[in-house]
Design brief:
By secondary structure, the chain is of the alpha+beta class. It has ten helices and 41 strands. α6 links the parallel β35 and β36.
C-alpha cells in the first residue's frame, strides 16, 4: 500500500501506513496571511433541503472496500501536554494494552524517558507542575469493606530526579482528588479530596516535594461538590445541589468566611445552565456561562457577592456557548459554539489570524491547538475535518514550521472518505430538524440503501459535522447515512431542548421516522432498504423503530441500547440524588401517568418480525448488561430470532480497537445478509439488492463472538 500524504502550505509530509508519524523531517512552511473567518449566522428558519441542493459524486470511482480494522485502529497516542517552557512534550501512549507516559524533546521529538503504569493501573489524566514535574491521576482495582471498587490517587513524578510519590490522603478516601489550582511555578497544588466515600470534598494544599504533609485550607461544606479558586490560588467559591436547590457559597478573600449567596430550585429556569468559568483575584467578579432570557447560553461577567450578572460579554444570536477559553491573564480569549460544526469566536485578533493561517497551511477545515508553551513559541496542533480523522502537528511559531507528529488513524487513507452534508427537514408537527447526510461515493443519490443513525444521550447531546468512523465505514460499503438531531438535542436553544421532554419513544421517534420520509420523498433512499443503527439511546431508538413501525424498516442494530425504561430508571436512581432522580424520571416519562412499558422494546420483543443485531459489553455501568439479557430472554419466541454479540469486559463505549472491530465486523456481516448495498463483484458483475423485508430475515450469521438467537 502506498504512503498517505498530507500537505501543509507547500510542505509535503509523508505518512507511511502502520507508523506513528514521528519520522517526518522539519521543513519551512510559508504561512500566507489570511483574514480570520467569521461565523455565519442563520437569521431565519432554514428551508427544507432538496436533493438538488446536495453535492454528489456519481461519476467518481467507487472506492475499494476499506478493512474495518483501519477504522477501528487508533494512534497509540491519547493525550498530550507541553511543558510551560516548550522544551518537552509529555504524551500518554498505549503500549501492548498498557498505558505509559512518554517524555519527548519538543524540538527533535526524540524520546527522553518512558514511565509505564504499574500492572492494573489506568492513567486518567496528567498535568505539568512547572517545567520539571508531572501531576498524574492513576486508578487501580481495590476493595472497600469487602466490595470490589476502583480507587484513584494523585502521583507526582519529578522528571529530573526520577523520584515519584503519592499525594497522601485519608485512609478511607477512595478518590485521590481533583485539581482545583496549580501554582504557576509548579511548587504547590490545591486538590479537592473526599476523606471517605460519602463525604463532601475538602480542599488541601500540597507542597509538591516528597514527604510534605498536606494542609487543609477549606473544610467540607454540606452539599458543596465543586470548589473554585481564583487566579491567585485562593479558594473563593463552592457550589452543589442540596434539598433540590443549587447552592452557591462565596467569600471575598482567604481571611473571610463562606456565605450562602445564591439558591436556585431544581425547577427554576435559571438553574438549567449555570457554569463557573473563572473568579478574578482581587475582585468579586468572574466569568460564567449562563442562560439568558432568550434561552441561549452566553458569556456573562458575574458579581458573585451579589449573585447577579453585570453584563453580557458575548452571546451568539442562534447558538448556545459551549465553552469559554481564557488568556493567561484571565481575560476571555475565545468562545466555542456549534452550528453545523464546531466554531470558535475569537476575542483576540492575533490568535484568530494564527488559527486561520494554520488552517490554510494545513489545508484542513478544523484546527485546534491541543497544547502550547507559555510563550506560544511551540504548539501541538490537531487538524482534520468530517472526512479526515486528522493528524497532530508540532508548530514552531518563531521558525514558522509545521512537523507531522502523529496520524490519528495510521492505516486509514482519508482520500477514500466522503464529506457529510448538513440537511434540514420538517417534522410532522412542523418543527425544523437539522441532520447530517453522508452519501456513498461513485453512486447516484437515488434509491440508495439508507442507514438512519440516531445519536445517544438523548437530551442535550447532538451530532455535528465531525469525523465518525462508523459513518465512514458504512458510506464506504455503499450506504447513505442520515444522522437526525431529533427534538431534545442540545445546542439549538431551550425551546428545542424542552420539546423533547416526555417524548422518548414518541415525538423523538417521530422525528426519526420523518427523517426517513424526507430521504424517501427526495428520492435519495429506497424505502424497502432502510435500517436503523445506534448506540446507547441510539441503540434504543433502533430497536424501537423495528418494533413500533416494522413496515418501515428492514432491520436494526443496537449497541448498548436501553430495552426496559422502568428498570433503567430504577438503575439510574442509585447514582442520582433524590431530586436529580425525580427530575430525570419526569423528563423521560413526561406525564406521570404514562406507562413506560408502552415504549420499552423488551415488552414487545416477542412480536419482533425484523432482523435485529443486539450487542452489549458485559462491563457496561451506564446501560447495564441486564438490559441486554432482558431483551434476549423476551425475544426467544419471536418470529425472527435476534443476532447477538457480547463483548466480555467491555464497557458502554469501546475501550480497545479489538472491541470496536468486533462491532464493525458484526455490522458488516449483518447488513450484508439483511440490507445489502449495491455491489459490483470482482469480475464486474452487478449484484442487485434483495428485499430484506420479505426474504432472508432469519439467516444466521457466523462470526467469532456472535451467536444468533442466543
Amino acid at each position: 500500500m502506498k504512503g498517505i500524504f498530507r500537505v501543509a502550505g507547500g510542505l509535503v509530509l509523508a505518512m507511511m501506513p502502520g507508523t506513528a508519524g514521528l519520522a517526518a523531517s522539519a521543513q519551512e512552511a510559508a504561512l500566507a496571511p489570511s483574514a480570520a473567518a467569521t461565523a455565519s449566522v442563520e437569521t431565519a428558519p432554514a428551508p427544507v433541503t432538496r436533493a438538488a441542493d446536495l453535492v454528489t459524486e456519481p461519476a467518481a470511482e467507487r472506492p475499494a472496500l476499506i478493512p474495518a480494522s483501519h477504522f477501528a485502529g487508533r494512534s497509540a497516542f491519547r493525550s498530550f501536554a507541553m511543558s510551560p517552557d516548550g522544551t518537552r512534550l509529555a504524551v500518554l501512549r498505549d503500549r501492548a494494552g498498557k498505558p505509559e507516559i512518554v517524555l519527548l524533546d519538543a524540538a527533535t521529538r526524540a524520546v527522553l524517558k518512558v514511565f509505564p503504569a504499574q500492572d492494573d493501573q489506568s492513567i486518567n489524566w496528567f498535568e505539568w507542575a512547572g517545567n520539571s514535574k508531572l501531576l498524574i491521576s492513576v486508578s487501580f482495582p481495590g476493595k472497600y469493606y469487602g466490595y470490589q471498587v476502583r480507587a484513584s490517587r494523585l502521583l507526582v513524578r519529578d522528571l529530573d530526579s526520577t523520584q515519584a510519590w503519592i499525594l497522601p490522603v485519608a485512609r478511607d478516601a477512595l478518590w485521590g482528588g481533583d485539581l482545583v489550582h496549580m501554582a504557576k511555578d509548579g511548587s504547590e497544588a490545591l486538590v479537592a479530596v473526599r476523606d471517605y466515600v460519602s463525604a463532601d470534598p475538602a480542599v488541601y494544599r500540597y507542597v509538591l516535594v516528597p514527604e510534605a504533609k498536606p494542609e487543609k485550607v477549606v473544610k467540607p461544606k454540606s452539599g458543596v461538590s465543586n470548589w473554585y479558586a481564583d487566579d491567585g490560588g485562593v479558594v473563593r467559591l463552592g457550589m452543589g445541589w442540596e434539598r433540590r436547590q443549587l447552592r452557591v457559597w462565596y467569600r471575598k478573600d482567604a481571611a473571610s468566611e463562606f456565605a450562602l449567596v445564591g439558591k436556585l430550585k431544581a425547577d427554576d429556569e435559571k438553574s438549567r445552565f449555570w457554569s463557573v468559568v473563572s473568579v478574578i483575584s482581587g475582585s468579586d467578579k468572574g466569568y460564567v456561562l449562563e442562560e439568558g432570557e432568550n434561552g441561549r447560553v452566553g458569556v456573562r461577567l458575574f458579581d458573585y457577592a451579589s449573585g447577579t450578572a453585570l453584563e453580557t460579554f458575548y452571546e451568539h444570536p442562534e447558538r448556545d456557548i459551549d465553552e469559554l477559553w481564557l488568556k493567561d491573564d484571565g481575560s476571555p480569549l475565545a468562545a466555542l459554539y456549534t452550528d453545523d460544526r464546531d466554531q470558535i469566536h475569537w476575542f483576540d485578533k492575533s490568535r484568530a489570524q494564527l488559527n486561520a493561517d494554520l488552517a490554510k497551511a494545513m489545508q484542513l477545515d478544523d484546527v485546534v491547538i491541543v497544547s502550547r508553551s507559555q510563550d506560544d513559541g511551540r504548539m501541538l496542533i490537531w487538524g482534520g475535518n468530517e472526512a479526515d480523522p486528522g493528524a497532530l502537528f508540532l508548530f514552531d511559531s518563531q521558525e514558522r514550521t509545521l512537523n507531522l507528529f502523529a496520524n490519528y488513524r495510521p492505516e486509514l487513507d482519508y482520500r477514500l472518505l466522503v464529506k457529510p452534508q448538513a440537511v434540514r427537514y420538517r417534522a410532522r408537527d412542523g418543527l425544523g430538524i437539522s441532520a447530517y447526510l453522508t452519501l456513498p461515493r461513485g453512486r447516484e443519490a437515488k434509491g440508495l440503501p439508507l442507514i438512519i443513525m440516531p445519536h445517544g444521550g438523548p437530551f442535550g447531546v447532538r451530532d455535528k459535522l465531525e469525523y465518525r468512523d462508523e459513518v465512514q465505514l458504512l458510506a464506504n460499503r455503499g450506504y447513505a447515512v442520515l444522522q437526525p438531531n431529533f427534538r431534545g438535542s442540545g445546542g439549538y436553544g431551550d425551546g428545542f431542548y424542552e420539546a423533547g421532554a416526555g417524548q422518548i419513544g414518541r415525538g423523538m421517534q417521530d422525528d426519526i421516522d420523518d427523517a426517513m420520509d424526507w430521504a424517501v420523498a427526495e428520492g435519495i433512499a429506497d424505502p424497502k432498504r432502510v435500517c436503523v443503527i445506534g448506540g446507547s439511546y441510539g441503540g434504543y431508538a433502533a430497536l424501537w423503530a423495528v418494533l413500533r413501525n416494522p413496515e418501515r424498516y428492514a432491520c436494526a442494530a443496537s449497541w448498548a441500547g436501553v430495552t426496559d425504561w422502568d428498570k433503567m430508571l430504577a438503575y439510574d436512581k442509585r447514582y442520582l440524588t433524590s431530586s436529580g432522580s425525580k427530575a430525570w424520571q419526569a423528563r423521560v416519562r413526561g406525564d406521570e401517568t404514562f406507562d413506560l412499558d408502552a415504549v420499552s422494546p423488551y415488552r414487545l420483543a416477542a412480536q419482533l418480525t425484523r432482523p435485529v443485531l443486539l450487542a452489549h459489553g458485559t462491563a457496561d455501568d451506564n446501560v447495564p448488561f441486564r438490559q441486554y439479557e432482558l431483551m434476549v430472554a423476551a425475544a426467544k419466541s419471536a418470529p425472527v430470532p435476534l443476532t447477538t454479540l457480547v463483548i466480555p469486559r467491555e464497557g458502554h463505549s469501546f475501550s480497545s480497537a479489538k472491541s470496536e472491530q468486533q462491532w464493525y465486523d458484526a455490522l458488516d456481516a449483518f447488513l450484508a445478509a439483511h440490507n445489502p448495498a449495491d455491489q459490483l463483484g470482482p469480475d464486474g458483475t452487478f449484484t442487485p439488492p434483495r428485499d430484506a423485508a420479505s426474504t432472508g430475515n432469519a439467516v444466521p450469521i457466523t462470526l467469532p463472538g456472535i451467536t444468533p438467537g442466543q
